[in-house]
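To: structure subgroup
Subject: Chain for Friday's discussion

All,

I'm putting the inputs and outputs inline so they're searchable in the archive.
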Amino acid sequence: MPGFEIVAREDFSDVTYLLEVRHPLMAKAAKAGQFVIVMEHEHGERIPLTIADFDRDKGTITLVIQAVGKTTREMQQNCKVGTHLHALVGPMGIPSHIGHAKKVLCIGGGLGVAPIYPQARAYKESGAYVIAVLGFRNRALMFWEDKFRACCDELIVCTDDGSAGLKGLVTEGIKQAVSAHADIVEAVAIGPPIMMKGCADATRPHGIKTMVSLNPVMVDGTGMCGGCRVKIGEQIRFACVDGPDFDGHQVDFDDLMKRLGRYKPTEKAALQNWEASCRLRGGPGHAH
């Protein structure tokens, strides 16, 4: 059968779901920080997704996805165990530089908690003392706490509503970690642009080198389309081939957020059209 088989699925909430896909060659080649481009079906959109985990023995790649736009909602509806993805290209992007830092902060916000996991594990394997700071809107949206506890020396959970861990944003967790450990030398943060900007602002006064993973709109993933242009200091870079990791203290987050905002009307129209066609077919795509 063509395509790449989905061998496991887990739903973390009504919008967040995990797909484990069989792709032995990719599982062998994948490194922390890299991403893939997925097409659910032959006429589907190409979407970039960061690799959340890989298992070389099982030959699988794990993706954690949030159903926000037309394609991710369509995948939420159709991708079940035993079905196949039409295309899965990667691993793409430059792997994260793990190096030999002695003490590091790994910060994940919302969906960014998934791709920060391979980074935390890689740092631990390199011999670092790893402190993870994970942020969720509330306790119900939490996932992978056990996986992080298994590979981190300390885990700080933050929730917007205080239903678990510290009440507040991940920046509260960063403050707690920095006040307890004056010798943190590196941080890596993955999450929405506004969250990564907050992390960079929180670590800057302490001189902690902070890497962020940027996931802007991409079409081809090879630097040809220019859709993923980002401003890093005075230079223009392409997230797909120069990244996705960049120095958080150099990223122009305001430009990044403005650029992402430009696609909102098109994304909204695509979602509305898809929901309307689902209603016509009597499918489950109607808005909740």
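Points worth raising on Friday:
The longest helix spans residues 264-281.
The domain at 103-261 is CATH 3.40.50.80 (Rossmann fold).

D.
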